Write the structure tokens for this entry.
Amino acid sequence: MSVHDDRFAGKKVVVTGSAQGIGLAVARRLTAESAELTLVDRSELVHEAAAELGAHSVTADLESYEGAETAVASALERHGRIDVLVNNVGGAINFKPFTEFAAEEIQAEITRSLLTTLFSCRAALPAMTGQGRGVIVNVSSCATRGIHRIPYSAAKGGINALTASLAFEYADAGIRVVATAPGGTEAPPRRISRGTPPPRSAREEEWFQAHIDQTLASSLLKRYGTLDEQAAAICFLASDEASYITGTVLPVAGGDLG
Ligand SMILES: NC(=O)c1ccc[n+]([C@@H]2O[C@H](COP(=O)([O-])OP(=O)(O)OC[C@H]3O[C@@H](n4cnc5c(N)ncnc54)[C@H](O)[C@@H]3O)[C@@H](O)[C@H]2O)c1
């Protein structure tokens, strides 16, 4: 990982879903680049990550608006302002043909991968507009064009839409709103499960494998990305180096445009 030592010096940054995976990789890079962090997660493991990084941490369930308000209030109490909000919470739960999804499973995907970001943006924007500046980086997905996770694809399409429209609505307030769309990303085994049920049959295993095969086939580079490759793009967009970029969704997926 190559970093820009002081790119975030003096910046107060909130990263959601930062107990593991892409969120933790972003938090590690931001720390190396001198940011002052609030790590938000619903898992207690977030406190372990915060101890490693010397960051502030708060547990909150961002699937409720109250959780988002709690997280923002805690960040403001500790740091007084929010310069950057990285909305990273999300992730597909189920992998199967659309007609296999029960109604409550569809709802759970939208709640996990769309409402969390909507709620966090709504909770953080008043502080940002009060400051007269701020950056929101949403973590979308190239699965906006993919198989076997249609409700998740729809949720991430919503993330792209709210990124563009919030950028439009809050540009005059000095706020940039951007997103990355990661492709398949290699990571160590998850310590915190997304709640994906283990496959109960060869057919369910095939459904899961099919989304991996499609992800690789859709990428020009024919490989998964790394956590560092995702964190590098998120941190660039969050930084002042990206000051003329807003409303944009940057695919980070080896050529898969999503
Ligand atoms: N990993 C990939 O291959 C990939 C590909 C494309 C997009 N993405 C997107 O990148 C983001 C991160 O993915 P990941 O694989 O690193 O995630 P992950 O599942 O490994 O980790 C998600 C983190 O968010 C936390 N979290 C989940 N629900 C929460 C809630 N309601 N409130 C607070 N915290 C909550 C979890 O505890 C966990 O720490 C997601 O938005 C995902 O959709 C990931």
Q: What stands out?
A: Residues 17, 19-23, 41-43, 61-63, 88-91, 112-113, 116, 139, 141, 182, 184-185, 187, 190, 192, 194 surround nicotinamide-adenine-dinucleotide (CB under 6 Å). Residues 103-131 form the longest helix (29 residues). The chain has a mean pLDDT of 98. The two ends are 26 Å apart (CA to CA).
